[in-house]
Amino acid sequence: MRGQLRSELLKQRTTRTSFLLLLWMVGLVALAVLLHVFGFSAEELARDENQLKVLGLGASLGALFASLLGAMSITGEFRHGTIRPTLLATPRRTRVIAAKVAASALAGLAVGLLAGALTAGVEAAGLGARGIPIELSAGDYAQLLAGGAVAGALFAAIGVGVGAVVRNQVSAVVGLCVWLLFIEPLLFGDVPAAAKFAPGASAGAIAGAIQTQVASSLLAPALGVLLLVAYAAAATAAGSIATTRSDVN
Amino acid sequence: MAVDDVTFSLQPGSITGFLGPNGAGKTTTLRLLVGLAKPTAGEAFVFGRRYQDLEHPMRRVGAVLESGDFDPGRSGRNHLRTLALATGTPYGRVEELLELVELQAAADRPVGTYSLGMRQRLGLAAALLGDPELLLLDEPANGLDPAGIHWLRGFLRQFAERGGTVLVSSHVLAELARTVDAALIIDRGRLVAMVGLDQLADATGSLEDLYLEITARDRA
Predict the structure, then answer these.
(1) Angle at CA B68, nearest 5°, toward A158 and B93?
(2) Which residue in A87, A207, B52, B175 has the most C-beta neighbors within 10 A?
(3) How far apart, in whole angstroms, are the C-alpha atoms of residue B11 and residue A104?
């Protein structure tokens, strides 16, 4: 199992997709945070709740890109055909999925941390440039970084599960993007009482905020962790079953 | 049903051609043997067990099922290393194989820049990581230029001479006629003939005549 994990970590480091995803994330976080920091009025931005919402962009985008990284780790193998040599080397397919989940969770942790740190840095710089005092506490930042890292790790596992079930790279990527960027915000508009139990909202609960919601409309952080662990477990179990049961052509 | 009740044994130290028209079930048979596909009924065994139940599958069986199973951005060396890590094979073996398949100079280049022949050789190197007893190759000569086919022939002959067993599928007889010691002929999912060494050496007819005769008889 250790060999499989090291193999997956090496795969991650030696594919262009990982670097491209990371670049996209850095660019998107910077763009989104700057748009918010320079798009809103000084009065709006002076309120700590709005500053927290901007911070929540980091949690949202970190979770999204962590899930994409996880999904790529398995759909990339189907896309390029490397799944065949991979399964010849390790015919126990659950072992392959477990190694991918572990490797992706590690990468997702780093992605969550990076997204959080970048958001905090860009927001602070932007607010500073506009002369708006920062109302966020050290606790807010700590929760964003720690929570963002945990959410990133768990979302990467969700991504592996989704990718293993879907297998097609485009479908998996579009599905995850649509869910996190479109459906969940829509649910928050229509059925907020139910929406806070969704995976993206759970990530926000752990990190303290997501792009449109702050802690008061989300679950308690501990409950968010539990829920997201359950989502990750369900997704990886489904991915494991799908991979074991279906033939590889 | 793609394949039904196919059983055969191969001679160590020999190259056996796995012949049949397109869609006869050659690829399906190979995929079933290495556990990529599951039979709808029954089991597929190699060395008396399911592939996934072999203690060190890559030390028993090396297989190349497609010629392009690489991440185009990953280097040839790293491709082999990912598989070496997963199978507990030391990196030194990777270097040995890169030398064997003459890819040392290109080892750090992304596979996306490789020619078809180079990819084919990298695939072979991956199959050889565990120094297997049996080599299964699906249509390995597809798309290779004459130099590539010549290299492959020499390579397979060497592998067999060192005691290895080779099963190589093809739907193009000419590629194989000069290479194989024996042949299995499959048609519509059933094994229709096993042609031994001695029969092939017979002057009574070329492999091609035999193949055409058998597949035609089977259809009649």
Answers:
(1) 90
(2) A207
(3) 44
Pairing of strands B190-195, B182-187: antiparallel
Residue ranges of chain B whose pLDDT lies below 70? 1, 174-175, 197-206, 218-220
Shortest distance, CA A225 to any CA of chain B (angstroms): 32
* Architecture (CATH level 2) of domain B15-71+132-219: 3-Layer(aba) Sandwich (3.40)
The verdict on B190 touching A (C-beta cutoff 8 Å) is no
This prediction has a pTM of 0.93
Domain boundaries, chain B: 15-71+132-219
Cβ of residue A244 closer than 8 Å to a chain B Cβ: no
User: Rounded CA gap, A161 and A70, in Å?
Assistant: 8
- Summarize pLDDT for A184-204 with one digit per residue, the tens: 999 999 999 999 999 999 999
What's the complex ipTM?
Answer: 0.92
d(CA A198, CA A228): 9
Per-residue pLDDT of B125-152, as tens digits, reads 999 999 999 999 999 988 888 888 899 9
Question: Which amino acid, one-letter code, is at B89?
Answer: T
